[in-house]
Amino acid sequence: EETRQQRIDELDIENHRLRQLLNSSLSQVDSLSNEIRHLSSHLSRNRRRYRDLEVEYESLLFQYNCARADVDRLQSYED
């Protein structure tokens, strides 16, 4: 009977330890999940910003090419 009770006590202690480990793991999962959501939000924002910058770059490149063509045309008149 004593060894049976001792075994029950050991199992209770192990069960308590495993519950603490599980709770700690769940807490870490929650933390990581929040971090992933946060990073995902930043990634989406950065992708939008990148697309905006691409559009702005294309516009500036077009303006530059037009200005370059104007300069070339004016120089050809001078020649």
Polypeptide structure, described:
- The protein has 79 residues and is mainly α.
- It has one domain (1-79).
- It has one helix and no strands.
- It has one helix at residues 2-78.
- It is rod-shaped.
- The mean pLDDT is 97.
Structural class: mainly alpha
Largest sheet: none
Give the percentage of residues in beta strands: under 5%
Order of SSEs: H
Helix content: over 70%
Residue ranges: pLDDT <50 for 5 or more in a row? none
The total of helices stands at: 1
- How many domains, in number, for the residues? 1
Average of per-residue pLDDT values: 97
From the spread of the alpha carbons, the general shape counts as rod-shaped
What features would you highlight for this structure?
79 residues; mainly alpha
How are the SSEs ordered, and which strands pair?
Layout: H1 2-78
Organism: Funneliformis caledonium
Protein name: 14331_t:CDS:1
Summarize the structure.
This is 14331_t:CDS:1. With 79 residues, this protein is mostly helical. It has one helix and no strands.
